[in-house]
């Protein structure tokens, strides 16, 4: 953490009027060692947990004026890229949990990490990190077994499958050369074919987030599941990441770096 031993970590929060922006500000309010120095939103927003929310188009000047230790972002791909560029210009590290980036947008986000440390994660729940490690181990230990992934989120989530689901699929493919084709749902005459990983995205109600991996073969099944009770889990993890990232060298980081301790 870049601040002194008795000084709080000063953060900036984008998307302060959104679900996750509010969660981050509220989680920060519960931590004596964290203070929200800047909060912005694209539309006019009332104060959140006592923190005034400014206009997002003023982010650059606010970062220059307040010099926060790190910015925390849960918005949309286009916004996150713009905020990353503002962070690079102002020399402010960035933590983002935004998902759904196109390849070109991801390249732009990575470009910012040449100037400042950028930590991107599809999920900030420690349990999901453990799930991903378990999935890699299980998929590698059960060659030839079929793999299916189902994820469920609230009815307002835009990207499908979720960023976490895509990360889990990447994990499976990294240890199973025989699984190289993602099939999104099935309909009609659609028997399973070699090389498939079935992917199923459900959107309903106010479900925070569920991910289930089914591994089946040889007359047995293995199910690995993570359920998030509320969004506060992700906000707490993002604040842990922000604390870890502040003061780091420019570069591209992930949540595993935080959990593993990274290089000191």
Strand-pairing-aware structural class: alpha/beta
Q: Helix-strand pattern, N to C? A: EHEEHEHEHEHEHEEEEHEH
Low-confidence stretches: none
Largest sheet: 7 strands, parallel
Could you tell me how far the N terminus lies from the C terminus, measured between alpha carbons in angstroms?
11 Å
Oligomer: single chain
Strand order of the largest sheet: 3-2-1-4-5-6-12
Quantity of strands, as a count: 12
Number of helices: 8
**Average predicted local confidence, pLDDT:** 94
Radius of gyration, in Å, reads 19 Å
The helical percent reads 25-40%
Which word captures the global form? Answer: elongated
Q: What portion of residues belong to β-strands?
A: 15-25%
Describe the structure.
This protein is an alpha/beta fold. Helix content is 35%, strand content 25%. It has helices spanning 19-29, 59-66, 77-90, 103-112, 126-141, 163-175, 232-245, 255-260, and strands spanning 9-13, 34-41, 54-55, 70-73, 94-96, 117-120, 146-153, 181-184, 196-203, 210-217, 220-227, 251-253. The strands form 2 sheets. Strands 3-2-1-4-5-6-12 form a 7-stranded parallel beta sheet, with helices on both faces. The chain has a 5-stranded mixed beta sheet with strand order 8-9-7-10-11, covered by helices on one side. It starts with 8 loop residues before the first strand and ends with a helix. The mean pLDDT is 94.
């Amino acid at each position: 953490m870049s601040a002194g031993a008795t000084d709080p970590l000063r953060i900036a929060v984008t998307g302060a009027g959104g679900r996750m922006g509010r969660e981050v500000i509220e989680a920060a309010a519960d931590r004596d060692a964290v203070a929200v120095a800047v909060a912005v939103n694209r539309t006019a927003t009332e104060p959140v947990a006592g923190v005034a929310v400014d206009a997002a188009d003023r982010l650059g000047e606010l970062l220059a004026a307040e010099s926060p230790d790190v910015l925390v972002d849960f918005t949309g791909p286009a916004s996150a890229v713009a905020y990353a560029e503002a962070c690079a210009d102002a020399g402010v590290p960035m933590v983002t949990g935004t998902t759904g980036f196109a390849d070109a947008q991801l390249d732009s986000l990575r470009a910012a990490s040449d100037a400042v440390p950028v930590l991107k994660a599809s999920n900030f729940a420690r349990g999901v990190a453990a799930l991903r490690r378990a999935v890699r181990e299980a998929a590698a230990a059960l060659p030839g077994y079929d793999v299916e992934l189902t994820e469920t989120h609230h009815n307002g989530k835009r990207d499908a499958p979720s960023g976490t689901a895509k990360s889990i699929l990447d994990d499976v493919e990294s240890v199973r050369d025989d699984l190289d084709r993602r099939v999104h749902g099935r309909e009609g005459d659609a028997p399973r074919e070699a090389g498939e990983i079935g992917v199923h995205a459900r959107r309903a109600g106010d479900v925070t987030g569920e991910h289930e991996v089914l591994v089946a073969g040889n007359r047995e099944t293995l199910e690995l599941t993570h359920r998030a009770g509320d969004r506060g889990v992700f906000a707490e993890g993002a604040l842990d990441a922000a604390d870890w990232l502040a003061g780091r060298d420019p570069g591209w980081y992930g949540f595993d770096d935080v959990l593993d301790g990274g290089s000191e």
